[in-house]
TrEMBL record:
Keywords: Lipid biosynthesis, Lipid metabolism, Membrane, Methyltransferase, S-adenosyl-L-methionine, Sphingolipid metabolism, Transferase, Transmembrane, Transmembrane helix. It is an enzyme of class 2 (transferase). It is a multi-pass membrane protein. CDD domains: AdoMet_MTases (cd02440). GO terms for biological process: methylation; sphingolipid metabolic process. This is sphingolipid C(9)-methyltransferase. Pathway: Lipid metabolism; sphingolipid metabolism; Sphingolipid metabolism. It holds the Pfam family CMAS. It comes from Dimargaris cristalligena.
Length: 260
């Protein structure tokens, strides 16, 4: 998910500009940090941070393919000795490992609402006192009443579509409200430094992904078939639309473990 400076900015430029903002303005990365990233993706964040700062990074990916791609990136950049890539649930990491910074930009959407308490407690456990966490989360309106009632059925169908077609076998927390997240954060003993609504940026990111997907449609048809192309075409367009219209929201949460 990227932050955009204007509506015409390209996805690549937004990504390049977003990385230093995350590192310097949000997390205040320094050379002594030990960072845990819970959503490796293709390794972009690890590559930037590991190249710009001499810190140690542990990153978690559920995908063996993405983990291998990220490892190859770190090898070529000469930073693989400082980047440890794990293919596991981050709750299975050794409990004695401690980190000064934690990042989770995508993975929380698939944790499941019933697991939010365990998730934030684990975050609190692995952070040192004074440690900082940057987390993105998708939330539902506080109540599907009044003008929001029109989104209840759509949000339910979107939720079911992602579970059955896009990420079968996983869970989502799409019906969790921002207050639900804040309640679990406070129960885990974490403090909230900053909350930002980044729904427009999220909608624009999905819209750019949709454009890229459409431009590659012939390659996707040949490799994966028409059904896969259509399934993801609908998902990307629908995600952009529902975020833009307010049926779902995206928030950036900057958290801190207090020193006691």
């Amino acid at each position: 998910m990227h932050r955009f400076s204007d509506h015409d900015e390209s996805l690549d430029n937004a990504g390049e500009n977003d990385l230093p903002r995350i590192a310097q303005e949000m997390l205040h990365i320094n050379a002594d940090d030990r960072l845990l990233n819970l959503s490796t993706g293709w390794g972009t964040l690890e590559l930037y941070l590991g190249s710009q700062f001499p810190l140690f990074i542990t990153t978690v990916s559920p995908s063996q393919e993405q983990a291998q791609h990220a490892y190859d990136l770190m090898e070529r950049a000469g930073i693989s000795e400082r980047v440890q890539i794990e293919t596991c649930d981050f709750r299975d990491l050794p409990p004695q490992e401690q980190f000064t910074k934690l990042v989770c930009l995508e993975a929380l959407d698939w944790v499941g609402q019933k697991n939010l308490g365990d998730f934030f407690q684990r975050c609190a456990d692995v952070l040192v006192p004074g440690g900082t966490a940057l987390i993105y989360c998708t939330t539902s309106p506080s109540a599907f009443t009044g003008s929001w009632s029109q989104y209840l059925g759509e949000t339910l169908h979107y939720h079911l579509y992602t579970l059955t077609t896009i990420c079968p076998g996983r869970d989502t927390a799409l019906f969790a409200t921002l207050n639900d997240y804040l309640d679990e954060i406070h129960r885990a003993g974490l403090e909230v430094d900053l909350i930002e609504n980044i729904s427009l940026d999220a909608s624009m990111t999905y819209a750019r992904w949709f454009e890229n997907w459409d431009q590659a449609r012939h390659i996707i048809h040949m490799r994966y078939g028409e059904d896969v192309y259509r399934q993801w075409e609908l998902y990307l367009a629908w995600s952009s639309s529902i975020l833009l219209r307010g049926g779902l929201s995206k928030h950036s949460l900057l958290l801190r473990k207090p020193i006691r």
